[in-house]
Amino acid sequence: EYLEKPAELMTFLERLKNAKKQMFLVTNSPFKFVDVGMRYMIGADWQDLLTLSSFKPGSQSFSLTSTGAFPLACRCKLAKDKLLSSIVGLCSRQGTVTQLQAMTGWCGNHVLYFGDQIYSDLADLTLNYGWRTGAIIWELAHEIKILNSEEFRHTVSWLQSLQHLIEEMQDHDDIEDFIEQLLQERDQLRKTTKSLFNANFGSIFRTHHNPTYFSRRLFRYSDIYMSHVTNLLNYSLRHTFYPRRGALPHECHTPHS
Asked: Which residues form the signal peptide (predicted)?
């Protein structure tokens, strides 16, 4: 099977529609391709959930950037204020994000845009337009499963204790051989924690104690990331996510009260 059919996807979309949220779909795939997939996952009336749908018309290029044009082959069902009223049908044209914002009034941090490609989907929109962005990282579900496993938690706990022991004892005299044994055990534990995620290259989010390049780009261009958009069903529509304050190397770790 090439497409998964999330059981909660329809519930999630209907929840947003019932709350008067305006949803739109932008893709560089042709309508016929998208329609087959969406009919399978949601149903024949999937476009009724959306305010605007944009597809790739013919063989023309697609770009959702500040300079490039994006195809607006859309089925519009837009509200009265800045939008057209009750237009149903397919139209084909070229436009830019700026024109899209002018047509719809969807601007700045009032927009939450989801994509699974950090650069092509999210980077330009957050840097140049101030949209809120959400990244869909399907590997995250596997990573969290490993993080919560007893083997990983035990290994990391012992690794941290061992490293603290090495730091405290390394300057004592006549224990060089013992410290060397501890360092070898530490190296083995580091390899173990890495291989639990993937035997070849470890976690996509970190390499030992450092975030990967992928992680740094993800944190730079996305305001929130998750394994599936339906994860948001666990939160109310009024919920605000606040970033955690991480301690810098020269700062002390302040425990939660």
From this structure: none
The tokens for 183 are 């360092």
Query: Could you write out the three-class secondary structure of 107-144?
Result: CHHHCEEEECCHHHHHHHHHHHCCCEEEEECCHHHHHH
**pLDDT tens, position by position, for the chain (257 residues)?**
578 888 899 999 999 999 999 998 888 788 888 899 999 999 999 988 988 877 764 433 334 544 444 444 444 444 333 344 333 333 334 567 887 788 788 899 999 999 999 998 899 999 999 999 999 999 999 999 999 999 999 999 999 999 999 999 988 888 999 999 999 999 999 999 999 999 999 999 999 889 999 999 999 999 999 999 999 999 999 999 998 888 888 988 777 66
74 φ, ψ (degrees, to nearest 5)? -130, 155
Q: Which tokens belong to 241?
A: 């996510």
73: β partners: 55
